[in-house]
Amino acid sequence: MSEDDQYSLPNDYPIVELECQVAFDALxxxxxxxxxxxxxxxxxxxxxxxxxxxxxxPLIFSLLTKVFSNEPIDELKKALLIKGFSEDNFTxxxxxxxxxxxxxxxYKGFGDTKFVPNLPVDQxxxxxxxxxxxxxxxxxxQSLWDRVKGPLYSLSEREKQLSYPDKGITCYLxxxxxxxxxxxxxxxxKSKGLEAYNTRLFKIVKNNVTKFExxxxxxxxxxxxxxxxDFKGSKFVVTKGDYSPIMKLLVQHLGKAKEHAANDFEKxxxxxxxxxxxxxxxxxxxxxxxQWIKNKDPIIETYIGFIETYRDPAGSRGEFEGxxxxxxxxxxxxxxxxxxxxxxxxxxxxxxxxFEKDTFxxxxxxxxxxxxxxxxxxxxxxxxxNYDEIRQNEGFKNVSLGNVIPAAYKDAKTPxxxxxxxxxxxxLRIPAFEVQVGLHELLGHGSGKMFCQTNDGFNFDAxxxxxxxxGRKISTFYKVGETYDSxxxxxxSTYEECRAECVGLFLCLHKDIVExxxxxxxxxxxxxxxxxxxxxHVGVAKCLENYQPSSKLWLQAHSQARYVILRVLxxxxxxxxxVKETDPGKDLLITLDRTKIPTVGKKAIGDFLHKLQxxxxxxxxxxxxxxxxxxxxxxxxxxxxPHPFAKWRAIALAQKKPRKILVQANTxxxxxxxxxxxxxxxxEGVVQSYxxxxxxxxxxxxxxxxxxxxxxKDHF
Length: 716
Description:
Radius of gyration: 25 Å
Distance between the termini: 32 Å
GO biological process, one term: proteolysis
Strand order of the largest sheet: 6-7-8-10-9
Structural class: alpha+beta
Keywords: Acetylation, Aminopeptidase, Cytoplasm, Hydrolase, Metal-binding, Metalloprotease, Protease, Zinc
Organism: Timema monikensis
Number of helices: 27
Strand content: 5-15%
Protein name: Dipeptidyl peptidase 3
Largest sheet: 5 strands, mixed
Number of strands: 19
Oligomer: single chain
């Protein structure tokens, strides 16, 4: 297999249905109407993600939706087969289309690497020219094809991954932006008390004068939020109106959803969200989030906006996402027990009380069956909102996406393990992951105090609290206007994910915690082992796929975090963990000694949590340089030595199985009643589900995206 082959998609790409019928049927029609309009808001708002992902993604979306909207898939297939077109090539086209829609663009949502069609470009052209869409609009389709066929297949080194413009592709920053520019812009935003979540950055150089346009997502396009101003030798302007027609659709659906809200919290939340998406105000979205965390135990759970910063190379700008889900009561009861014990469980973590929040803000923690999740992928759990001042002082929510976990792990492949270990993972991977997600979200992301300077002093005793490593007074802290994301930038996501994963590994060693999930005795012992084994197995078998050797870049925050944990456990020694090459160039063997997990393993993870790169101390005290030095040491991928993971990456890639895509249902209204429309777990099913999502829009989504693409194409 050549290096470039990994970017093609196999015809047997795994697809699983995200099942939610039982949970949906339990809703009243009022609740179904609320869920229906929130789902429309999420899906239609997610058109923005194609504009965030790559320059060609909006045009590919337009091309595909035109083809599939003009005739049924089976009719297109029949016409092609009559002409002698290969059935394998047609399947390859459907697979590409289904993966493209599921990732909201032509880069993987998990891993940020490009994928290309697994059929020759000339055959794809034959397919397109056979379609009814081409025959009804030949000039429009030819124009689209001329613009996309190059970037659709191109795999230059820069195009293989998302990153800063000198190393990869991004549409969060214009193509002439540098890493240094983002630091300068960050300083400007900080000086104005702003954050970058709902922005994109455009650098304009004219007559040797540099101007940075920071553009907010909003319906409104004027007036400027901050008129042109000078800052550190450059000009800055904060405008609004990014994705304007998309935001208009989103706001309309939120208004409809508000008519069916269950209480004032939901109504006020949606009011604030409408204001945010209309004006570009991030403060309004924060106010909506405040109402959201006050809305305890809702039947329909939802969150929407520019949320996660993983894909912005600077780690500051959020990708649009929206989800709608129904509460899974039996699993939620287990999580509520965990929440009720959380304050006492936090004392078991390896840091002193000064580094924990003054008051634990008891959050909602629910297990949800997802109805709709838009964006570039579906996580297994979420801890939100991401706004530091709300999380630290007012609270947050944890959600475990209960129907995602079994779907994602269905028929999971486990190379590099003994048959005995493989059997253990097959039996216990899902319940172990449910425990890990619970601990990761609630006590990982939910733990820890951040030491901040305030307008009238500090939120900690600056005279008394000592740095646990130096014994001296705390000398680094978050200055007024600084946040974790603004300071830690591109390191922030992976660093925090690593900390949360370590908390899960550390606390699952306590059997009374595992018993909360209904697992006792030997089964609890086996589950703990399965959780640790799963972590190191993923670190070897899956994470290396998301490392780019040519640029030495990690492309996915969770993958980097899990690989770092693997390196920490290998360094611990003591016979805890071994990874060996058993068949040169072909096979590896991972051996984890379960008897040493409670001793060697616990000490390694405990010390790591306290002293090394996942250390709360570095995050708490804003000690970026120490955190970076520690973390990057473990994130290195060595070419040689006892564990040459750079060489072993090829072995891992040869054994890899693609990450499953999940086919989601749609809601349909008929005579005031809402029904669920399900789709088969096939490429055809995925494609049809996306085509159905965008029918009956006042303007076809391809028209919206092409217009927005045209406005900014010169920047990318």
